[in-house]
Amino acid sequence: QLDPENTGFIGVETFASLVHSHELPLDPAKLDMLVALAQGNDEGQVCYQELVDLISSKRSSSFKRAIANGQRALPRDVLLDETGLGFYKRFVRYVAYEILPCEMDRRWYFYQHRTCPPPVFMAAVTLTQIIVFLCYGARLNKWVLQTYHPEYMKSPLVYHPGHRARAWRLLTYMFMHVGLEQLGFNALLQLMIGVPLEMVHGILRISFLYLAGVLAG
Asked: What is its EC number (predicted)?
């Protein structure tokens, strides 16, 4: 209706009025991006494909260009301007600023994160790995290069080529670590990257991805 000649473009002013008068509630993050697209367009026209890319969150060149051009004109400059946030929301905002360099991506993450179910998978895996390591460290009386201890490979958790029939070892080896250095590095990555990802993608996706990596390893 707004493009009777089927050019694939509509005027920025028409598009902006449509965004603000739309009868359906829009995701705040998507609304910001749509406004950025309208206000940051130098040619005075909005391309249909750019709109599709924005709505689908497709990271195409047109998407990146529209956001880069429009960020300067966002109605709310930064996520830090949000007031009246509870402790958990402030924590989510802190995570967004720690892991994302782009303000638009931070806002998208802030609105996409999930509180239910909470991100317990990565935290539970990391805690279990720490407990297992402490138990074996105390049992072997060795905290560095535990694999050098003759009793280490007798663990029912370790993957051993001679015990391929024990299928559980293909998964349980993820709880075993060489020493404090490996455990610390793994735990740090899992908490800094895995937990924020789980807050957006949920426990099912992140657990499937993690266990797929364990099996591939």
From this structure: 3.4.21.105
Give dist(CA 42, CA 65) in Å, integer.
11
- pLDDT tens column, 68-100: 554 444 444 467 777 788 888 888 888 888 888
Residue with tokens 């609304």: 31
* Domain-located, residue 16: yes
Task: Indicate the number of domains in the chain.
Answer: 2
Task: Report pTM.
Answer: 0.60
Report the alpha-carbon distance of residue 156 to residue 167 in Å, rounded: 11
- Strand ranges for the chain from DSSP E: 9-11, 45-47
Indicate whether 78 belongs to any domain: no
Q: What domain range includes position 27?
A: 9-71
Same domain, 58 and 125: no
* 114 occurs within a structural domain: no
What Cα–Cα distance (Å) separates residue 144 from each residue in 14, 138, 149, 174, 188? Answer: 66, 12, 10, 17, 18
Between 154 and 208, residue with greater pLDDT? 208
First and final C-alpha spacing in the chain = 54
Q: Quick one: 38 and 126 in the same domain?
A: no
The residue with greater pLDDT, 28 or 143, is 143
